[in-house]
Each structure stands twice: as C-alpha cells, then as structure tokens.
Amino acid sequence: MQATFYQSDSDQPHPGRARAIIKAHPEVRQLMVRNPWTALLTVSILILQTVIAYGMGRLGFSYWWLSLLIAFCVGAFANHANYVIIHDATHNLIFRRPGWNKMVALIADLPNLAPGAMGFRVYHLQHHSHQGDYQWDADLANHWEARLVGNTWYRKAIWLMLFPFFQVTRPPRLKAIKMWDRWFSTNLACAIAYDVAIVYFCGWAGFLYLVFAFLFSIGLHPVGARWIQEHYTYDFDQETFSYYGPINWVALNMGYHNEHHDLPSIPWNNLPKLRAMAPEFYQNLKYHSSWSRLLVQFVFDKRYSLYSRVERMKEKAGSQATPELKNSRAGNLDLSARPISF
After folding, report:
1. Neighbouring C-beta atoms of residue 45, cutoff 10 Å
2. Are residues 15 and 57 in the same domain?
3. Closest CA relative to residue 341, chosen from 223, 241, 221
4. Same domain, 70 and 190
5. Core-most of 13, 220, 229, 305, by most CB within 10 Å?
6. Could you tell me the pLDDT band of residue 314, with boundaries at 50, 70 and 90?
C-alpha cells in the first residue's frame, strides 16, 4: 500500500481545460444558466421521503427489514439526489440570489437528518479552488484516517458505511475558514425541527428509515461509489474521473465530474450537453461505466486505499501545464475513450 498520497507538481487540469474549451467552443456559454425547476424537484423528494417515513412509522419496528430494503432501493437514490441539489445550490445554479439557493439547500438537507448543507457549501468551494491541497481540500482523507483504513477489504467497507462520520473529522485540519454564521445556525435549527417532527408524527420507526436512507446514500451502496469515482485512482496520469452510466438518470448527472470541474457554472441538467458540444476534450479521458463494479473493485482491490489520490505540491503547483492541456493545445488528442473499471 502507498505510504502517502501521490505527489504532483502540476497544476490541476480543470482551469486550463476550461479555457481551451471556451476558446474552441464559445457556444458552451449558452449552457451556463440557472435551473429553478430544481427547487420543485427538491420539494418533491422531501415529500416522497417524508411520506415513506410516515408509512414505515405506521408499520412499526417489526418491519425494520422492509424499511432497510426500501431505503436501499428508493431512499438512497432520493437522498443522493438531494446531495446533488445541495451541490448545485452551493454553486448558485438554481436561483440568481445566493440566499434563495441556500434556502433550497436547507430544504434538500432535511431528509438527511444531520445539518450538512452549509458546511458543505464552505468546504466544497475550497475543494474546487484548492483541489488536492491537504491544507484546504476536505475531500482528501486525514493521514490518520488513511493509515487506519489501509487497503484491507473489511476496513474499506466499514469506512464506506461510516463515511459521513469520517468526513466531519476533516475540517479541523484545514486552514481557518469561517463556518459558524447565521446560515449554519439556521441549518442546525431546521434539521432539529424536522427530526423532532419526524419522531412525533412518524415515530422512531419512521426516523429509522431515514437513518437507513442517509447511510446508504453516501455509504456502502452503488451511489456511494460516486465518492470513489470522482478522484480516487491508482493510475495517476489522471486525477478526476467521470461516470457515464444509467444511474446518472436518478443521480442528476453527478457522474459528469470532469465536466463539472471544468465548468462549474453549468447546472446538472446541462452537463451531458457540454460533453456533446466539446467531445474532443473528453473522449481521450478515462472514465467509469459502472458504480456497482467500482464499489466492489474499491473494496477488494488492494491497489485502492485512501491514499489513492493526487496531492498537489503547493510550492510547485502551476509550474507546468497538465498533459491533457498540452495535448489539447497541440491538437494531439487521443480520441479513444478508455473505461477503467475491470
């Protein structure tokens, strides 16, 4: 197993590729719009999850197995879609006013039970601007976390099941960033109020369904493989990967991760259009075609660990263009698409 992250002295590939895409295809600017219909989807998912929780509450704890099954087959996808909505709201891609986007994020966060939307807003934007910087990027695991998990299959499985709990241990290591403000307090108050309402109207059995859905949505589940797909690799000539598969239909195109990092001002519904407009910039990149297969591969392949990430060497960052950008400028793109799942 690697003893640390892979060290890179290159700048992250996305700003350079974004400039090249806009120069070659200025029409992609038409995709940089807001999608207010996402707010309606947010309310629909909230109603769906609340209704299911009420139904499971009426059935009681004796049907915990049914609650687990529905959470795996329905709830995980619903909650994961909520995370995508929170993600778009973070980039202000739903409404023009930042405050309205924050309100949508708060609504989408309710079925998750724990207040995470406003914290995500702060640290995700740092992930974009400081990708791979251990001092700024909360998407990188802690060193102690990576050493604890190692590359043993059962530890990686447990890590995925407990992924949200590991995530909350990362912010203290980052550079001082103001997170406690009125919006964070509002996020906390809304989460507590919703949790209390669920227990009161749906009972603890209904609350348990939402706990199952929350854990599956970002853990040991096909949609949980999204966290591996985005930046984990043992092939370090590329550090961001997209997923092109059927789950994108219910995951709101979250698999289009290279496209999102290149032009984060494009909402989820237009990301496939970006790839279609500028195919020469993506057809040469490796990608994943199955989240389920990647999940199994990550758990059982010893080449994968939490150190299977690129860490940017800050003192040398920006000193040279990435191979992808050099090739795109030179017109030497390899147009053969390369899936990397085995």
Report:
1. 21
2. no
3. 241
4. yes
5. 229
6. low
Among 28-37, 56-65, 173-182, 225-234, which is the least confidently predicted range?
Answer: 173-182
Same domain for 16 and 74, yes or no, is no
Final residue of a structural domain among 164, 189, 218: 218
Final residue belonging to a domain, choices 156, 191, 218: 218
Question: Under a CB-based contact definition with an 8 Å cutoff, are residues 236 and 6 in contact?
Answer: yes
Answer whether 118's CB lies under 8 Å from 179's CB.
yes
Residue 288 CA: distances (Å) to CA of 127, 153, 245, 260, 278: 21, 21, 8, 15, 19
Task: Write out the two tokens for 100.
Answer: 């309205």
Pick the closest to residue 57 from 213, 216, 200 (CA basis).
Answer: 200
The model's pTM is 0.88
Range in 38-52, 53-67, 174-188 with the lowest mean pLDDT: 174-188
Closest residue by Cα to residue 255 from 223, 282, 215: 223
Report which of 10, 319, 3, 264 is spatially closest to residue 127, judged by C-alpha positions.
Answer: 264
pLDDT band at 336 (very low <50, low <70, confident <90, very high): very low
In angstroms, rounded to a whole number, what is the distance separating the alpha carbons of residues 229 and 289?
A: 10
The boundaries of the domain holding residue 326 are 1-31+229-333
Cα 308 to Cα 104, 143, 229, 298, 305, distances in angstroms: 34, 12, 11, 10, 5
